[in-house]
Amino acid sequence: MVEARYRKQRFFLVLCRSVTFAAVLVLSILIIHILLEGVSYLRWDFFTNFPSRFPHKAGLKSALYGSAWVISMTALFSVPLGVASALYLEEYAPKKRYINWVQINILNLAGTPSIVYGLLGLAIFVRFFGLDRSLWSGSLTLTLLILPVIIISSQEAIRAVPDSIRHAAYSVGARKFQVAFGQVLPAALPGIMTGLILAISRAVGETAPLIMIGALSYVAFVPEGPWDSFTSLPIQIYNWAGRPQAAFHGIAGAGIIVLLVFLFVMNFGAVMVRQRFQRYRN
Amino acid sequence: MYLNKFKLIDHGIHGFLFLCVSVTFVTTGTVVWILGQESFVFFQSINLFDFLLGTRWEPLLDPKSFGVLPLVCGTLMIVVGAIIVAVPAGILIAAYLNEFCSPKLSSIIKPVIEILAGIPTIVYGYFALTFITPAFKMLFPDMGVFNALSAGIVVGIMILPMISSLCDDAFRAVPSDIREGAYALGATPYEVITQVIMPAAKSRIAASIVLAVSRAIGETMAVTLAAGATPRMTFNPLESIQTITAYIVQVSLGDTPRGGIEYQTCFAVGALLFFMTLIMNMIGNHFLHSKTVGK
């Protein structure tokens, strides 16, 4: 009887352990596979050439510039909006029922599929406001997409600031905005930064909404202003990966290496910020 | 005087911050309005029941047919595949992190598994297309280049971190006195997990699964790349299918004249997608934030 129970226990432990290490193994296989496919296509030309019909001539230049533009603009719009919204919800909002609904709405927005944001961007920014296939449309769509993510993570960071700080500030006569902007925001900043980096790195990899609003995959120029049309790194990768020739799969792999290196650097930065500066945590 | 000026600033800032928050509900309102309006136009020419119950989806070829079931069926196959991969694995990983492994090991494993969640979906599509499909082809030689099986598997890998971290939180939230009570009675960790922790955390485990399903339904690029563009009613995972999301991408890659029926179909199936994920998110978030038993 006891023997059987222990046997079950040992079997379960082995099962748990092997599944966990299988997940880690899958990640390693994924990374190794992509390195093997793409690394031989990573040459200097690859970064300075425009896309081409010929795999050995094709490059990422327009995609890199396009991604840099669209991400900078997205960050510019979404960071102030998101942090301000989080500050409102945590510090200013009255404890009323409708705030609860605002909160539920933000959670739902965070779970809405990105392609729905693409439809929204297509109907509103591209058609209704007539922004066409420009960087404006792309970055505004991505802003709406990552806004709920930024709000939720910033709220968590703000909530982690202990009340004693707020009380101390009030007790020496500070007004609400002085508490919020002078005390709470600086104290929560490392946590907010971590969330921001993660949200923006999500925007970097987003493909579907940009395809929806009509970001092009064959762009042989570099965008020079926010009204220009553009392509982005993931869209270029999608275009290459969808072609049947093996050589294009190779350069798609090379594009993915660039994308992943960039994301790993950002994520590493986020971890560093958290470990170095974060004093308060939930 | 001095105080009044500050009061003014305070009110001004309050108003400005509220304006920022209002972007979120304006967004939701606009989504509902856009999807509703375009679908309304669509359903004036297409019967709602033909749409919901029709079994042929051929909006781009004559004779046109607008039965959405093949797309729903394709989406369902991906979801089922993803759930089979992710749910048992996610729960076992959470159990391992919680009961068996040292805090030091778990502080290494957790971020590594989180990396899986941060990889863009396009990369998963590429992985399915260039690695998983060729690997399975050795087992099933008649498998297509595009198929539901590999797409379902990568979507499963993608939602795995979500399930494992939500379940991990759920297990952690179970009060340690009932856990330790069970240990004190001589229960093995296996018995503690399956008979004490999992029953206590069941609503949050269910929530994690519902939220993961919602994520799998809305997943776009991986299925567009790996599952193909052939809407059909099949339950054979080796065949090429099309999901709701992949259809929307397919249409938007072509030239879509505004007001054309193709343009409107996107919004009609988009509305269906939004509706499905919204309901699942509401249910999931409700259960996630409800209290754990015994707390």
Overview of the molecule:
The complex is a heterodimer of chains A (about 280) and B (about 300). Chain A has a single domain (about 45-275), classed as MetI-like (MetI-like fold, Orthogonal Bundle), CATH 1.10.3720.10. Chain A has eleven helices and no strands. With about 280 residues, chain A is mostly helical. The model of chain A has no long low-confidence stretch (mean pLDDT about 90). Chain B is mostly helical and about 300 residues long. Helix content of chain B is about 75%, strand content about 0%. In chain B, strand 1 and strand 2 (about 65) form a beta hairpin. In chain B, helix 3 packs across helix 6 (about 150-170) and helix 9 runs antiparallel to helix 12 (about 260-290). At the A-B interface, helix 1, helix 3, helix 4, helix 5 and helix 6 of A face helix 1, helix 3, helix 4, helix 5 and helix 6 of B.
Question: In which range does the helix fraction of chain A lie?
Answer: over 70%
CATH class of the domain at 68-267 in chain B: Mainly Alpha
Number of domains of chain A: 1
* Cα separation of the termini of chain A: 44 Å
Helix content of chain B: over 70%
CATH architecture group name of chain A: Orthogonal Bundle
How many helices of chain B? The count is 12
Which geometry of chain A do the CA atoms define?
Answer: globular
Q: Can you tell me the overall shape of chain B?
A: globular
Distance, first to last CA of chain B: 51 Å
Any idea what the radius of gyration of chain A is? 23 Å
Count of β-strands of chain B: 2
What's the oligomerization state? heterodimer
Mean pLDDT across the residues of chain B is 89
Please work out how many helical segments of chain A DSSP would assign: 11
